[in-house]
Design a protein that fits this description.
Elements (H helix, E strand, L loop, with lengths): L5 E5 L3 H15 L8 E5 L36 H15 L22 H21 L4 E4 L3 E7 L8 E6 L4 E4 L1 E4 L18 E2 L5 H4 L9 E4 L3 H12 L6 E5 L17 H12 L5 H13 L5 H5 L8 H10 L4 H10 L4 H7 L2 H19 L4 H12 L3 E5 L1 E6 L5 E5 L4 E4 L1 E4 L15 H7 L13 E2 L4 E3 L5 E7 L5 H4 L5 H15 L2 H10 L1
Parallel strand pairs: 1-2, 1-7, 2-3, 7-18, 8-15, 9-10, 9-15, 10-11
Antiparallel strand pairs: 4-5, 5-6, 12-13, 13-14, 16-17, 17-18
Helix pairs in contact: 1-3, 1-16, 5-13, 6-7, 9-13
Bound molecules: flavin-adenine dinucleotide.
The site of flavin-adenine dinucleotide has 31 residues, from helix 1 and helix 16.
Length: 521
C-alpha cells in the first residue's frame, strides 16, 4: 500500500488559506481521494488573516473594492457573496430591520471595507477548507508556532526525501512536501532607531502600536505609502493633537483609486497576447499598447501620467485626482487589466529593461497599481488643509536626540525635531533586509534559497518550486507569495497570491491523475 503523504504549509495567512481552499477544491474532483495529511504552522493569533488582514482598527481599509477581493482566483466575487450573506444573517436575526437589496446597501464609500473584515472571511474560508479536507480523508493539524528551520533528509532507495521542520519551541515535524507561505520580509529599521524611546518599529496592528504614541507628540511617519497613510488616518481618528508628517525620500504618495473596475479592455488584453505570441515584448511595446488603449478612450499615456511626476506635491496630487477621476482612473484600469500577463510579460523583457523599469518606472506603476481608497484621500486632504498633516520629501537621516525625541535631516540640509517616530516604510521583498534569525535568512545561508537579483528568491516560474544554490529545482518545496516576486514581478495582492496558490494546488493534484481516474471509472 502507498504511504500517505504529508504536506506542511508554513504560514497561516491569505496565501496559505488560498492554497488550502484550492487544494481541497481540486481534490474533491479527484475520485481517487488521494488527500495528503496537512500540517499548518502559524505563530499569529489565528489561522486565516495573516499579517495583512489581522484584527485591527475598522479604518484600516482594503485598498481594492470588496467586489474584486477573493481568495479564489477563479471566483472573484466570493468575498462579496460572503459579505452579503453576513448582512442577510444579521437582518434575519433582527426581524424589525428592513430587508434591502444587497447592492443597495453599499454606497461608493463603502466599496472599501476594513481589512479585518476580509480577515474574518479568510478565517471562515480556512476553517471550511480544513473541514473539506477532513471529509476528503486528510488529517489536518494546526501548529500555533513559527518554523525556524527546514532541512531535507535523503530517502532510502525508491523513497522520496523527507523534509524536517523545526518550530521555535523545538518540536520536529516530517513532511513529504512543503509550501512556504510566509509573506514578505518585515520592515527594516533603516536609521537604527530600535530601542529609542518614542520609536514605533512595527506599525501593525495599528490598534496596539499607535496606542504607544503620546497624543501631544509631534510625529514623524517614516514612509509615504499605504502603511504611512493608515498610520496618519488612525492617529488622526484617535484625536491626535499635534501635527503628523509623512516623510520619504521621493515624497511620492500612492494614487487615489478612481477606477472601480467595471468595463473590460479587450483590445489591451488582445494586444498583450499578441506581443507574447510574437515575442515582441519590450518596455516600449508595452507602453505603446497602454497608450493606444488610452487614446481610444480620449486620453494618452503622457496626459494620464502627468500628476505622478516629482514636480507635483502630495496635496496637489490628492486635490487634482479627487477633482479629475479620469484619465488616471483609466490608467489604473489598464495596469490592473494586465495583471494576468504580468509574470509572462516580465519574464519576456530583457534583463536590462527590467532593471530600467524598476529604477525609473516602478514607483509610478505602483502608485497606479495600489492606490488609496477615495475615503482616505479625502481624509488626508482634509487633515492637510486643517494644518494637521504635512508631507516632506528628501529625508536622509534620523538620529535619536540627546535630550529626547529625534532629529531628522532633509536633503537640503534642513533639520527638524520630532517627539515620536512611526516606522511605516512598508514590508519588502529584499532578502538582504531579512533578520538574521528568520527562516528566510537561514534558508539563504544553507543554500536552500538563492536571492533573486530583482527581489525575493529564485523559483521555477511555471510551478513556484524553489530553485536552490546549484540552480536545481527542489522537487517538493514550493513558495506562494511575495518571495516569488523577482520571477513574477508583482505578487503583493490577494488576486496574484490566489493565482499562485491555485497553480501550486494544480501541481499537487495534477490533471493527469484526474484523467486516469476518470478512465478507470
Ligand atoms: C498591511 C498590508 C495590507 C495589505 N492590503 C492589501 C489589500 O488591501 N489588497 C490586496 O490585494 N493586497 C493587500 N496586501 C498585499 C498582501 O501581501 C496580499 O494580499 C496577501 O495578503 C499576502 O498574504 P500572505 O499569506 O502571503 O502574507 P501574510 O499576510 O504576511 O501572511 C504570512 C503568514 O505567515 C506567517 N509566518 C511568517 N513566517 C513564518 C514562519 N517562519 N513559520 C510559520 N509562520 C510564519 C505570518 O505569521 C503570517 O501570518 C497587503 C499587505 C500588507 C502587508
Amino acid at each position: 500500500m502507498l504511504k500517505k503523504r504529508t504536506i506542511a504549509v508554513v504560514g497561516g495567512g491569505a496565501a496559505s488559506t488560498a492554497f488550502l481552499a484550492a487544494y481541497a477544491r481540486r481534490l474533491s474532483g479527484d475520485v481517487a481521494g488521494a488527500a495528503a495529511d496537512v500540517i499548518v504552522f502559524e505563530p499569529g493569533k489565528s489561522f486565516g488573516p495573516g499579517i495583512a488582514y489581522a484584527e485591527d482598527v475598522e479604518t484600516a481599509l482594503l485598498n481594492r473594492p470588496y467586489s474584486s477581493m477573493s481568495v479564489d482566483y477563479g471566483d472573484p466575487g466570493q468575498f462579496r457573496r460572503w459579505l452579503y450573506r453576513q448582512a442577510s444573517a444579521r437582518e434575519r436575526g433582527n426581524p424589525g430591520a428592513q430587508h434591502t437589496n444587497p447592492e443597495a446597501r453599499h454606497t461608493p464609500r463603502s466599496h472599501f471595507v476594513s481589512r479585518s473584515l476580509f480577515g474574518q472571511y479568510l478565517e471562515s474560508v480556512f476553517l471550511q477548507s480544513r473541514e473539506d479536507l477532513r471529509l476528503l480523508g486528510a488529517q489536518v493539524t494546526l501548529v500555533p508556532s513559527a518554523v525556524v528551520d527546514l532541512t531535507v533528509e535523503a530517502g532510502a532507495t525508491g523513497e522520496s526525501d523527507s523534509h524536517i521542520l523545526t518550530t521555535d519551541d523545538g518540536e520536529r515535524f516530517v513532511a513529504d512536501q512543503v509550501i512556504l507561505a510566509i509573506g514578505t520580509i518585515a520592515p527594516s529599521d533603516v536609521f537604527g532607531l530600535t530601542g529609542a524611546a518614542g520609536f514605533v518599529a512595527q506599525p501593525y496592528p495599528l490598534v496596539s502600536s499607535l496606542s504607544q504614541v503620546d497624543p501631544g507628540a509631534e510625529v514623524l511617519v517614516l514612509g509615504a505609502g499605504l502603511t504611512a497613510i493608515d498610520v496618519a488616518v488612525v492617529l488622526a481618528d484617535a484625536g491626535h493633537e499635534r501635527r503628523i508628517t509623512l516623510a520619504s525620500r521621493s515624497g511620492r504618495i500612492p494614487d487615489v483609486r478612481t477606477d472601480l473596475g467595471t468595463g473590460e479592455l479587450p483590445e489591451l488584453l488582445d494586444g498583450a497576447r499578441r506581443l507574447l505570441a510574437h515575442g515582441r515584448v519590450s518596455l516600449h511595446s508595452v507602453l505603446e499598447l497602454v497608450d493606444t488603449t488610452l487614446r481610444s478612450r480620449g486620453t494618452g499615456i503622457r496626459e494620464a501620467l502627468r500628476p505622478y511626476t516629482d514636480s507635483w506635491s502630495a496635496p496637489e496630487l490628492l486635490r487634482h485626482r479627487l477633482e479629475n477621476p479620469l484619465p488616471g482612473g483609466l490608467a489604473q484600469r489598464c495596469v490592473a487589466a494586465l495583471s494576468p500577463f504580468y509574470s509572462e510579460l516580465w519574464r519576456s523583457l530583457p534583463d536590462a529593461s527590467r532593471r530600467l523599469f524598476l529604477r525609473d518606472h516602478y514607483r509610478t506603476y505602483n502608485c497606479l497599481r495600489s492606490p488609496m481608497p477615495v475615503t482616505n484621500a479625502n481624509r488626508l486632504l482634509g487633515l492637510h488643509d486643517a494644518g494637521r498633516l504635512g508631507f516632506a520629501r528628501g529625508i536622509t537621516h534620523v538620529t535619536a536626540a540627546a535630550g529626547g525625541g529625534f532629529t531628522a535631516t532633509f536633503a537640503e540640509g534642513r533639520t527638524e525635531h520630532y517627539d515620536a517616530i512611526v516606522n511605516a516604510v512598508g514590508r519588502t521583498n529584499n532578502t538582504a533586509a531579512a533578520s538574521a534569525s528568520s527562516l528566510t535568512s537561514r534558508l539563504l545561508r544553507n543554500g536552500t534559497f538563492v536571492s533573486h537579483p530583482l527581489g525575493g528568491i529564485r523559483v521555477d516560474p511555471e510551478t513556484n518550486r524553489v530553485r536552490g544554490s546549484a540552480g536545481a529545482v527542489s522537487p517538493h518545496l514550493y513558495v506562494i507569495g511575495d518571495l516569488a516576486s523577482g520571477e513574477h514581478f508583482h505578487t503583493s495582492s490577494m488576486e496574484l497570491v490566489a493565482r499562485q496558490a491555485a497553480r501550486v494546488a494544480e501541481e499537487l493534484v495534477p490533471a493527469s491523475d484526474r484523467l486516469l481516474v476518470g478512465a478507470v471509472a
